[in-house]
């Protein structure tokens, strides 16, 4: 579960399903139990789970996003129902009142929920997308950043300042945090 998120579990004797209510963002890894399905409720949708690993995120735009790493889930809202496959994301938009699906990098979507972050042969721009997700911060990358270098490394609990200090030693970049605590990177 991501910082600032809440999960409420509904526990009933002889329940026919396993149900939680989520506000925010969480990663789930659920074992299949045909007799007792697992359901994640958000303020807008229900996610029916059939044994799987996935993330659910309510974002600031009001959309709810479900990203599937493995297994199978169905996203429901009133009469709308979309099943998604691994590597897909279902996006519910309350403004448009629809559920759309799209192909995604599901591992990237759940990177924040892992114990380690492994980067392998990624450009600086790609690395910054991962660091933004991993550290849950906003990063602005200047337009003149070179794509000539490939980075490979693994992180566990290193502070972002230490990571940036090391990157700036091996790559011609400068960085600073602005007054809004946004990390800004330029050459």
Topology:
Blueprint lengths: L5 E5 L7 E6 L1 E6 L7 E4 L4 E4 L2 E7 L5 E7 L2 E5 L2 E5 L3 E6 L4 E6 L2 H4 L7 E6 L1 H12 L3 E3 L9 E5 L4 H11 L3 E4 L5 E4 L1
Parallel strand pairs: 2-4, 13-16
Antiparallel strand pairs: 1-2, 3-6, 4-5, 5-8, 6-7, 7-10, 8-9, 10-11, 12-14, 15-16
Descriptive account of the structure:
This protein is mainly β. Helices cover 14% and strands 44% of the residues. The chain is built from 3 helices and 16 strands. The strands form 4 sheets. Strands 1-2-4-5-8-9 form a 6-stranded mixed β-sheet, with no helix packed on it. The protein has a 5-stranded antiparallel β-sheet with strand order 3-6-7-10-11. Strand 1 and strand 2 form a beta hairpin. The model has no long low-confidence stretch (mean pLDDT 90).
Highlighted features:
elongated; 6-stranded mixed β-sheet; single chain; mainly beta; 187 residues; 5-stranded antiparallel β-sheet
